[in-house]
């Protein structure tokens, strides 16, 4: 239980949360597909198929960049910062995919 608490309250988790919110904002800016029933309003959370990769890629890129920029150890070598950033980017992508798939299952 203590290990789980450490994972949920560390800096990487904070970066993933910020990344997730920024990706949700970006997702609303992407074009939506036309409604299935003519005359119905557009769904601002839906993204056209050819642009569906954008939030996925954005989650990785933002996760890496935010982790490198806000690294709490200023004397650390840039290569080590990027390595930590890649881990945070992967964590962001896993969180994004988990959210997207859970939303499809239950929504």
Secondary structure elements and their pairing?
Layout (H helix, E strand, L loop, with lengths): L1 H7 L2 H19 L23 H17 L8 H29 L1
Helix pairs in contact: 2-3, 2-4, 3-4
How many helical elements?
A: 4
Please state the overall shape, judged from the principal axes of the Cα atoms: elongated
Low-confidence stretches: none
Ends distance: 30 Å
Estimate percent helicity: 55-70%
Query: Which whole number gives the mean pLDDT?
Result: 81
Determine the structural class based on helices, strands and strand pairing. Answer: mainly alpha
Beta-strand portion reads: under 5%
Rounded to the nearest angstrom, the radius of gyration is: 17 Å
Largest sheet data: none
Reading the helices and strands in chain order gives HHHH
Give me the count of strands. Answer: 0
Task: Describe this entry's structure for a reader.
This protein is mainly alpha-helical. 67% of the residues lie in helices and 0% in strands. The chain contains four helices and no strands. It has helices at 2-8, 11-29, 53-69, 78-106. Helix 2 (11-29) packs antiparallel against helix 3. It is elongated, with a radius of gyration of 17 Å. It starts with a helix and ends with a helix. The mean pLDDT is 81.
């Amino acid at each position: 239980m203590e290990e789980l608490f450490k994972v949920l309250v560390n800096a990487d988790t904070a970066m993933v949360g910020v990344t997730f919110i920024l990706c949700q904002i970006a997702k609303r800016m992407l074009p939506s597909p036309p409604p299935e029933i003519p005359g119905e309003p557009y769904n601002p959370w839906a993204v056209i198929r050819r642009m569906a990769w954008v939030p996925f890629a954005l989650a990785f890129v933002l996760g890496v960049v935010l982790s490198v920029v806000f690294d709490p150890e200023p004397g650390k070598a840039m290569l080590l910062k990027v390595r930590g950033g890649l881990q945070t980017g992967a964590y962001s992508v896993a969180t994004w995919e988990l959210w997207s798939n859970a939303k499809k299952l239950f929504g």
